[in-house]
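User: Show me sequence and structure for the first protein, then do the same for the second.

Assistant: Starting with the first protein.
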Amino acid sequence: MTWGNVASVRHSNVKVHVSNQKSNLPLPKSAQIEVTNKCNLRCQMCPLSDPDYRPPSKSLHLSLRDFKILLDRLPSTIETISLQGLGEPLLNRDLIEIIRYAHQQGKAVTFFTNSTLLTRDKAIQICRSGLSHLMFSLDGGTKQTFERIRQGADFDKVIANMRGMATVKEELGASTPTLGIMVVGMKENIHEIPLIIDIAHGMGVPSVTVKNLYPGEGIGGDPLTDEDIEYLAQTCAGHALSRGIRFSHPQHASLDNRKAERSCRWLWDATYVMANGFVTPCCFSYEGHFPNLKETPFEEIWNSGLHHDFREELLNGMPALCEECPAYSMKMVSHTPDA
């Protein structure tokens, strides 16, 4: 997922009464398209590591052919595409061609990777694909912490692969993709954020972003507290700026959105398409009965049925799915080095 390449919140069915009401909203400018729901790791904060988790569809990779069909059925207003879902995008053998096709259609394309499959040849292909932005998921600054959190990964190999990607980009003189590191912040790794900043600095990666872990059923790890956020804002931000690294982190550590200021714009600005073509109301709701883009015009999906009614419930109350959703109220703070 967009949230640090993991789905760090419990996925509940969207229990919204579907009416016959319709809206007439502007079409979205951003789309998240899941290119695979398979992953080669079992990270402690991901539902795929939960033995009780039941995926809403069989495991599959999105083919280039089906991607073209989905993109063709999305509105022309879409400007940016994140090729992200539950799985690791580099497992999809069609990924590079998917990026190229979307780029040729004038879209800005991004994705997250756990970097385990990022070979030199793949790095060259990525630099030549038209990809706009690539984020490395790195949840530890030491081998012990990282491998405990991201089970199945080799820290040394991941760091070498990340460094290799940065080196290839420099060798080719490529302006894209821009590179960044994403950290799922939790009690287990908060003390290693300065080490991760040092890793970014050593590779020439210009940004590090920390997102708070949001707990749920089957989710491992302890989320950050307000004291941890203060540590990020003071100690870690200063460390990053001293090394010329742009550093972003949550403004607060609240896990209860019921009294929080509402800042989620997903239902009005973006859409999420699963690898099987189903369109969900937001990036954290993909267990349920959803319309399929291959069968239903996008404008109808966007302005009626579940999407319309979920917006109404969000405006007038607190859907259960939103109570601990990181996108609902989490405002980010960015510290940018002087030019």
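Switching to the second protein now.
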Amino acid sequence: MARHNSIENVLILQGGGSLGAFGCGVFKALAESRVKLDILAGTSIGGINAAIVAGSKDKQPEFALEQFWLELAENSIDLVPPPLMSSIPLAPSVNESESYYSSNHPQASLSLRQALSFYSAALYGNRMMYLPRWRPEYAIKDPKYFRPHEWTYIYDHSPLASTLEKYINYDKLRPGGNPNTRLIITAVNVLTAEPMTFDSAHQQITVKHLLGTSGYPLYGFPWVEVEKGMYVWDGSLLSNTPLREAIDASPVIDKQVFIVENYPKKIERLPQNLPEVLHRARDIMFSDKTAHNIKLSKVITRHLEFIEELYKIIEKNVDPSKIDRQELDNIHKKYKRMMKEHGAEIKKIVYITREEQFPYLYENTDFTEVGIKNLIKEGESKTKQALRKIGL
């Protein structure tokens, strides 16, 4: 079977609020190791990360991406007491002589920091990313300010548009704008529940698309009219791991895929209380569910190989006078069309997974400086480990 000689490197970035800083660390490590990425695909904050990289105004997009995250952290309103601003240590090994407090102090400290960060994010927002509609300045510009019973969203995330203008050259996010990196982001049509895929190889991606892919309604963000009559929400409502969209966008060239998992699929123990139950349910909803797509891709590849082998056997061994040549040519045309639409094979999947030291429901709203820096550092560390395993 005739195949493309090259292999595309694809980076899939999940959504996850502040957990997107983990993806920032992943990209930093990939850039440091000089892994060339041909396709960047993401949804929600993963789509934002991908857009900053693909459309970066900086020649070194890893620096721009990190600066974006540090700017968000610097502009979060910090309710965390100063003693907790230091990095939270790993849980110590506990023996019978150690007190209950000493063994649980790291978890309690981290939980307190994340709880305060959640309340800060919910009450005050972040002026570089989103603001609550109850702020006094909205009394003038929001016609429904005094009619909250008519609200369809709680937080205005248009401040994110101004922040992204500092980092993204949108001219790169159009066909031919950045020949080295292709951007794919996903959303869902509010009216039809159809998945929406925005691909810089085929259309101009604008700030409206980026606000659309990050408009998660269950956290109070609005839908966005990305085109006339097309209203979209965050793509993670359908899938938080847009691998299928990346495969469909480039169906001929074989791929090596790096998947950033903000939400771990596997845990070592059952939840111990109701908050942990809710945390685990949330992780499952947002976790990677692309195993079926990977298996299906391999099955289709094998079937195409069988069709090619049978075609060659027929041409070599069957008397042309005993076969309808037109019918055989029609079969071959169908095969070529299938190759064009489904010929790519996933050669390798590399999972880069964030660890959860302690299960906590609101870790994806921790925009504190220490929280963001820890996530970036963890993303770098996990990526370097993964690259060593595959010999890069």
